[in-house]
Amino acid sequence: MSSNAPPITPARFAAALPDLPLSSLHAKAAEIRNSISHLEASNDQLRCFADEGDADCADAIRENEEVVERMKDRIGLLKAEVEGRGFLWDNGPTDVNGKEPGEEDVDIMNGDTTSGAGSQGVNGRSEGLGRGGGSLGDEELARRLREMAEMDEEDGLHL
After folding, report:
1. How far from each other are the two terminal CA atoms of the chain, in whole angstroms?
2. How many whole angstroms separate alpha carbon 81 and alpha carbon 25?
3. Which of 4, 43, 113, 133 has the greatest CB tally within 10 Å of its CB?
C-alpha cells in the first residue's frame, strides 16, 4: 500500500456494508482472511532477519501487524452486519459447526440436522445455495467467488 493513500476508515467501510448482499459480505471476509494469512506468512519469513538486527525487516513486520489488526477489525464489522441481518457468522477455516473444510456437508442449525442446501436459518430465512449461508464445499465456494468476481466487474462495486 502506498504511504500516500490512507486506508478506508472503519466508519466508511461499515457504511458500505448494508447495501451488499450476504454472499458479498462472506466473500469479502474470505478475501480479508486470505490477505491476513499472506501477511502472517510474510512476517514469519521476515522474523529471522529482524531477529538478526535488520531494522527494515523489523519495521515491515510492525507495519504488517498494524494492517492485520485493521483487517481483523473489518472482519468484526462484517460479522456484525451478517449477524445484524439475523444470520449466523462463519469464522473461517472451520465453519459454525466446527467442521474442517471437506468434511461431510451436514448443516446443524438450531439443533436440527439437515443435509445439503436449503436449510432454514434464523428468522426462517432460507440459507444455502443462493444466499451465502450454511457451509460450502471447496468447488462450490470457488464457483461462487468466480461468479461474484464477474458481477463486480460488471457493476464496478469494490471495497
Report:
1. 15
2. 8
3. 133
